[in-house]
Specification:
single chain, 176 residues, 0% strand
Length: 176
């Protein structure tokens, strides 16, 4: 029974990169399909010459661009706030642990939840950018998708991030 409990945190650390990769691949694929549809003329309003494509006539795309900027800025701030909050929470989790094994498992759980939340935040504004490419045919939202992908990539590799969280929580440097 003891080995089962110690294997669960290790399993979670092995699964996390797969989850982050799935989120990242989803954003990249959606943006890629949006761009292909735009370039082939199958998606969006037809590009630069179409009425309303730049927002001059309807104003709706301008609102969407502002929404994208707002969601992206809020997402980036949230991404870093969640990371900072997790480091503080890690210290509290370690200080209140019953034993080192349970403390280790609690830190793995905290890293798992934090990684999923941060990945979802970055995925959200990356997908929104892809929707705007699909709807309006402009390619500049790819920059937002790029930021999204970079933030998700920063969640990898998982083990060094876990060691950093463990060191922040315990105040001790680990050799593994």
């Amino acid at each position: 029974m003891e080995t089962d409990r110690t294997q669960i945190p290790e399993e979670r650390l092995r699964v996390l990169p797969v989850l982050v990769a799935a989120l990242t691949i989803g954003v990249v694929l959606f943006a890629g399909v949006s761009v292909i549809l735009r370039l082939t003329g199958s998606g969006g309003t037809g590009g630069a010459g179409a009425p309303g494509a730049g927002g001059e006539e309807t104003g709706v795309p301008n609102v969407l661009w502002m929404a994208l900027a707002g969601v992206t800025i809020a997402g980036i701030v949230g991404y870093f706030v969640v990371g900072a909050a997790a480091r503080g929470r890690a210290r509290r989790v370690w200080e209140t642990r019953e034993d080192d094994e349970r403390g280790h498992a609690a830190l793995v759980q905290l890293l798992t939840v934090t990684t999923i939340v941060r990945g979802a935040i970055a995925e959200g504004f990356g997908l929104f950018a892809g929707v705007l490419i699909l709807m309006h045919g402009e390619l500049w939202p790819l920059a937002v998708t790029g930021v999204s992908v970079l933030l998700m990539a920063a969640l990898l590799p998982v083990r060094p991030r876990f060691r950093a969280m463990q060191e922040a929580a315990t105040g001790e440097r680990t050799l593994v």
